[in-house]
Structures are given as structure tokens and as C-alpha cells.
């Protein structure tokens, strides 16, 4: 059966809360602000963006655009464009009959099938709204591309994302059926839960799987591939050290040190 709007809003806000409560080196979290933004702004952003993102009356592109607008109105900065671009299609997929959310966290294979349907059904209007959302959010490092988001779209969103997929991790998810979200992030989260990790640690390990597994595309755009690869190598070392230790204080110290270096 399809999930209620209230349950989906709760799941989305829970995910945003867990993300901001986890000590994610280089990003904003409860342990430290960063990049001119605070954890409180992210929590406010989650609350206000949850309304349009789960509005069943709106197509997916318009949901994302309205979520960006609500965020800008509430916090006057770009806290969550990437979250919105990923959550929009996922929430639409979860609305469809047959999707299952286990404990508001772990999706089954039907969600992936529904997600594929959502992505393939996106219209040129969805593309236009998504482009407008990206421009409205004003992300750092927005550059020129064959399908410039500041112009009227010439292709559907999947095609535009395909053109950008080799240099942007969000775009890559659209053309791989969110392959890294499920195959890297969710896999790391499930593995952490399976070995008994609690509190923020499953989220931390999911984050570190990305930080250690890929050069950060935002860092590449703003600082170059060499800096991004250096950050990835540091993340690999810290990830290994986290796995080797079960002392929480030592783990937190490792993450805070990396956080300071990355910021």
C-alpha cells in the first residue's frame, strides 16, 4: 500500500535530523557549524522543505522547486539543494503502491522499481522546475554546461543529468537509478546496524563510505581534482581507523580532527 503523507514527512525529517546529528567531517553538524551555516538552519530547512516535498498534488519537479523556495525564505541560504534533488524522486516513489519503509529507514527493492518509474516519467515541465530550483538555490561552483540550468531546457531532466553525471554526484544518481545511494550509502548503513553500531554511527559510516569512496564533486568544482583526491585519501585513513576502534571518544577525536582539516 502507499504511505501516508504524514509518515513520509516524518521519515524525511527523521533522516535530515540523523544527518545533522552525525559528525560528518567537512560538513555542518551539531558538533560544529561550517561554510557560514549552522545546524539550526539545516533543521529549519528540513521542516519547511518537508511540506512541498510530500505534497501529492504537485509533480516532482514542482515539489523540488517549492522546497528550495521555502528553504530560501526560511534561512536565506542554500542548505539542502542536494537533499531536495535526491529526496524529491524518492518520496514520490515511496508514495506509490507497493513501496515499503522499514522503521522509516530501510527501503525494499520495490522502492527502487518505483523510483525508476518516477525518473523515467519526468516531463519537460519537471525539468524546467528542477532547473529553476537549482538556480534559486544558487549552489557554489555552478558553471557552464551543455544543458545550462539558467536557460530554457532543451532536453528532459534525465538527459540533462546524464550530461553532468561524470562531474556531479547528484546527477550521477539520476542516471544510475540512485545506484550509489543504495549500493554505497544504504549498504554502509545496513552493515553498521548489523554489527551493532548505535547512535550517530550508522549515519557516520554511511557518510564516510562516500567521502572515502569518491572524490567530492563539489570540491573538484571549487578547488580542483588534486585537492579532492587528497581529501579522499585522508577520509580513507580515518574510515579505516574508525573501523579499527570501538572507543567512542577516540572515534570522535579522529572525526573532529578531519573536520577541522577539511574546513
Describe the structure.
The chain contains 13 helices and 2 strands; from the N terminus they run H-H-H-H-E-E-H-H-H-H-H-H-H-H-H. The mean pLDDT is 92. The protein has 263 residues and is mainly alpha-helical. The chain has a single domain, classed as Orthogonal Bundle (Triphosphoribosyl-dephospho-CoA protein), CATH 1.10.4200. The N and C termini lie far apart (44 Å). Helix 12 packs antiparallel against helix 13.
Total number of helices: 13
Q: Biggest sheet: strands side by side, in what order?
A: 1-2
How many beta-strand runs? 2
Q: What's the mean pLDDT score?
A: 92
Oligomer: single chain
Share in β-strands? under 5%
Helix content: 55-70%
- Gyration radius (Cα, Å) is 18 Å
Judged by helices, strands and strand pairing, the structural class is mainly alpha
The SSE string, one letter per element, is HHHHEEHHHHHHHHH
How can the largest sheet be summarized?
2 strands, antiparallel
Instruction: Write down the CATH topology.
Output: Triphosphoribosyl-dephospho-CoA protein
CATH class: Mainly Alpha
CATH architecture: Orthogonal Bundle
Shape: globular
Q: Which blocks of ≥5 consecutive residues have pLDDT under 50?
A: none
**Amino- and carboxy-terminal Cα gap:** 44 Å
Tally of domains: 1
The name of the CATH superfamily reads: Triphosphoribosyl-dephospho-CoA protein
Amino acid at each position: 500500500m502507499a504511505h501516508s503523507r504524514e509518515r513520509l514527512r516524518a521519515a524525511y525529517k527523521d533522516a535530515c535530523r540523523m544527518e545533522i546529528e552525525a559528525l560528518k567531517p567537512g560538513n555542518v553538524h551539531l558538533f560544529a557549524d561550517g561554510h557560514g551555516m549552522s545546524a539550526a538552519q539545516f533543521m529549519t530547512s528540513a521542516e519547511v522543505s518537508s511540506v512541498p516535498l510530500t505534497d501529492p498534488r504537485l509533480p516532482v519537479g514542482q515539489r523540488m522547486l517549492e522546497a528550495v523556495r521555502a528553504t530560501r525564505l526560511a534561512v536565506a541560504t542554500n542548505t539542502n539543494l542536494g537533499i531536495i534533488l535526491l529526496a524529491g524522486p524518492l518520496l514520490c516513489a515511496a508514495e506509490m503502491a507497493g513501496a515499503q519503509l522499514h522503521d522509516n529507514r530501510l527501503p525494499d527493492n520495490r522502492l527502487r522499481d518505483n523510483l525508476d518509474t518516477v525518473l523515467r516519467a519526468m516531463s519537460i515541465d519537471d525539468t524546467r522546475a528542477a532547473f529553476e530550483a537549482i538556480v534559486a538555490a544558487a549552489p557554489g561552483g555552478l558553471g557552464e554546461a551543455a544543458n545550462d540550468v539558467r536557460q530554457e531546457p532543451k532536453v528532459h531532466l534525465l538527459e540533462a543529468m546524464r550530461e553532468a553525471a561524470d562531474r556531479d554526484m547528484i546527477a550521477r544518481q539520476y542516471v544510475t537509478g540512485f545506484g550509489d545511494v543504495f549500493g554505497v550509502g544504504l549498504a554502509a548503513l545496513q552493515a553498521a546496524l548489523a554489527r551493532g553500531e548505535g547512535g550517530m554511527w550508522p549515519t557516520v559510516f554511511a557518510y564516510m563510505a562516500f567521502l572515502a569512496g569518491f572524490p567530492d564533486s563539489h570540491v573538484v568544482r571549487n578547488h580542483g581534482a588534486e585537492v579532492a583526491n587528497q581529501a579522499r585519501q585522508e577520509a580513507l585513513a580515518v574510515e579505516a581507523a574508525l573501523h579499527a576502534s570501538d572507543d567512542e571518544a577516540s572515534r570522535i577525536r579522529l572525526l573532529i580532527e578531519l573536520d577541522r582539516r577539511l574546513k
